[in-house]
Design goal:
8% strand; mainly alpha; 2 domains; single chain; two-stranded antiparallel sheet; globular; two-stranded antiparallel ribbon; 34% helix; 6 strands; 8 helices
Length: 281
């Protein structure tokens, strides 16, 4: 593409993706922030009190990863929790169509001898609903509007380099949607491909999957992970601004741009810091 600024080299036929490369066909994926540690208690079914073990669900963790963690924590065969999720009676919105992605709230959950995959999943979803309903101001949304906010928050959680960037990342998402621009974020593409990687090829971006925001306009059909409180607040109340692009030049240094030319300069600086000033990819 002649209108794409130079990008860093990362091996033949691939490129190093960085968070927020957007139209530049890049963006870092799934840097997990510290988990929101929320103490919850599971019903013990009348069993005597015991000192529980703990299961930590970090912010941004995918449902598939949570299922695997539950199986491990409860010493169950792999796939048990995934199968339970398909039939469990969970308090999910209709828009979720039974998929708890986005509603397995990041927290530390005590587990004991009476804990089952079903009870643990229900507590995660109930915790998510309590947090979403208790959120201040515009986070108090319901139905399809809330589900849309959770979807945006899951992308914010995956894309933002720091908590302070979250409001701006959310604004970029909304600004691009308002202008009819494709999001073109690698976090959604990685979700489509069920992977976590910093490398994305041109061929990857052509995959036929509704979560591939290079090929499909608008938001993906649902969340790409389970966001925490800060990402939800950012999605519900984004920072005001006209940004359409962002790129993380270095740790803690994300540049937000309103024009393509400004973004190109930021990308050039990123390339230079990576020791690849020419940006040939």
């Amino acid at each position: 593409m002649t209108n794409v600024p130079p990008r860093p080299r990362r091996g033949r036929g691939s490129r190093l993706t960085r968070r927020g490369r957007l139209v530049l066909l890049a963006g870092v994926f799934l840097v997990l922030a510290a988990a929101v540690l929320v103490s919850v208690r599971l019903l013990t079914g009348g069993h005597p009190a015991e000192e529980p073990a703990s299961l930590v669900v970090p912010e941004g963790r995918r449902a598939s990863q949570v299922y695997a963690s539950v199986d491990e924590a409860l010493a169950l065969p792999a796939g048990t929790t995934r199968r339970t999720a398909a039939t469990a009676r969970l308090a999910l919105p209709p828009a979720a169509r039974g998929n708890p992605e986005g509603y397995l709230f990041p927290a530390t959950y005590p587990i004991g001898s009476a804990t089952t995959p079903g009870s643990l999943l229900r507590y995660m979803v109930d915790t998510a609903n309590r947090h979403f309903k208790a959120g201040g101001g515009s986070t108090r949304r319901v139905g399809a509007e809330l589900y849309r906010t959770v979807t945006i928050a899951s992308i914010v959680q995956a894309e933002a380099d720091t908590a302070s960037d979250m409001g701006k990342v959310a604004r970029v998402i909304l600004n691009r949607l308002d202008r009819g621009m494709r999001l073109q974020m690698d976090s959604t593409l990685n979700y489509a491909l069920n992977r976590s990687t910093l490398d994305t090829t041109e061929e990857d971006t052509r995959v036929d999957n509704p979560f591939n925001t290079y090929q499909h306009g608008g938001l993906p059909p649902g969340p790409i992970g389970n966001p925490g409180d800060m990402a939800m607040r950012a999605a519900a109340s984004p920072t005001a601004g006209g940004w359409l692009y962002f790129v993380t030049v270095g740790p803690g240094d994300t540049r937000f741009a309103t024009t393509y030319a400004e973004q190109a300069r930021n990308v050039s600086e990123f390339n230079a810091k990576r020791g690849n000033p020419s940006g040939n990819g």
